[in-house]
Write a sequence for this structure.
């Protein structure tokens, strides 16, 4: 690792994505210790945080007649409907209490637009609206992006693909990730990342 040109992105290690949370990822709490150890090894660390307003359009509760995990069409494309999760200011949106956030120089909050979901740390799900993280990393001279966190097949995957699209070298640290694996989404995610030139470690 090069402290000048590498960055660690720690994706969405929040209470709602851990066991007992509103959108729990199996084993999500198991990666907290690994994430802490990784953060201690990097000179640059960025955390991401799902941060939805109440009534977000990606919530099944915003679509009468639909249930969580249904898939619908939104103006920006297909959208899986989720249980209400990571609502701004709630305990579920907070980082896992054992996650040591002190090493982070930046926290990127995503999914704040009530009308559009946001899996990636770099772009909203319309694939056009930027969070600004790509420009920030370029300003810092970052060339290689390492990722860990939740969930492998959604927010980690889309962050990794967008980092590649922006020209960064990308490494996903699979041992420090966990997946939702909805209808084979993990296998699809691994294939998509490999095909995009993401290194899976």
């Amino acid at each position: 690792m090069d402290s000048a040109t590498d960055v660690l992105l720690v994706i969405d290690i929040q209470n709602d994505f851990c066991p007992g949370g509103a959108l729990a990822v199996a084993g999500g709490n198991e990666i907290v210790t690994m994430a802490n150890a990784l953060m201690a090894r990097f000179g640059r660390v960025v955390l991401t945080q799902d941060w939805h307003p109440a009534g977000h359009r990606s919530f099944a509760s915003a679509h009468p007649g639909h249930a969580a995990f249904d898939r619908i069409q939104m103006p920006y494309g297909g959208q899986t409907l989720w249980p209400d999760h990571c609502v701004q200011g709630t305990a579920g949106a907070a980082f896992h209490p054992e996650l040591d956030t002190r090493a982070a120089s930046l926290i990127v909050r995503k999914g704040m637009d009530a009308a559009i979901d946001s899996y990636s740390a770099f772009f909203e799900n319309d694939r056009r609206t930027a969070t600004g993280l790509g420009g920030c990393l370029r300003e810092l001279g970052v060339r290689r992006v390492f990722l860990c966190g939740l969930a492998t097949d959604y927010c980690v995957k889309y962050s990794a693909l967008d980092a590649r699209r922006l020209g960064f070298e990308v490494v996903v640290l699979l041992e420090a990730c966990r997946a939702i694996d909805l209808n084979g989404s993990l296998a699809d995610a691994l294939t998509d990342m490999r095909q995009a030139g993401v290194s899976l470690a």
User: Anything to note?
Assistant: The longest strand covers residues 169-178.
